[in-house]
């Protein structure tokens, strides 16, 4: 049994809490949060304890820490876990400030502890099979990749204001997928965006709809379209065109019932929200983290990989501002620890 403490009792924290409480290989030690009452409520519902900060990082009682707190606290908790010598599973991003994120990764790496960032889309069943197919050469050389991320509704503006913007908050998952699928680090990026929902989005310096083009060292092109609002549910899909064929991880409807009538065909629609679509990936990511800790298998996405996705997001956000194609500069960090 791996003894795990959870930091963060908000929405994502509650998702992780349920997975920890139900996992047969985990002893869910407890949960801590800046809001003690919220932590206590979640702990009671999950049948575990409310923890103080000191108890979270007590390596005599805890084997690993899962960080699902507010974005602006991730780096601090990663550093504290590293000082305690505790492996960490952390929600993205490491920190909204790239320089601070780089410094944090250097400190965690120097401590020699394993750390994984929850880019959970990698653990989607269909995306994972697409990745395997591409990387084993089943469709030949990659030439064109299309990724779609379209959410059903605009998040609250107070969330948008602190999220880092669409490139850093929403599209960053697909920057990571683009690297993971192709095995390449893009060299430059062009981003264009618009506001169609709430005009206050522009006042926040953000967009709700965007198209991003990445150019890979091989010459392959990647296009990512992202939208904060649709009229038909949550839409996520990937298509990869290769020299010998094409593979697609398509839209996933809530069911597979088709209704045939005179001159028409009606099928099941898409999930109402993003979480309903990707919920299983959180458990799959936890399984991977536990396997790495218990068997010594490679862990990932690593902190170094998360920094690369963040560097792409920074360049894309810059492109949105300047209207120019921007070169991507990747941070130089020590070699990331991959196993416990």
UniProtKB/TrEMBL annotation:
It holds the Pfam family GFO_IDH_MocA. Gene3D superfamilies: Dihydrodipicolinate Reductase, domain 2 (3.30.360.10), NAD(P)-binding Rossmann-like Domain (3.40.50.720). InterPro entries: Gfo/Idh/MocA-like_OxRdtase_N (IPR000683), GFO_IDH_MocA-like_dom (IPR055170), NAD(P)-bd_dom_sf (IPR036291). Keywords: Oxidoreductase. Residues 129-248 form the GFO/IDH/MocA-like oxidoreductase domain. One of its GO terms (molecular function) is oxidoreductase activity. Signal peptide: none annotated. Residues 2-119 form the Gfo/Idh/MocA-like oxidoreductase N-terminal domain. Belongs to the Gfo/Idh/MocA family. This is Gfo/Idh/MocA family oxidoreductase.
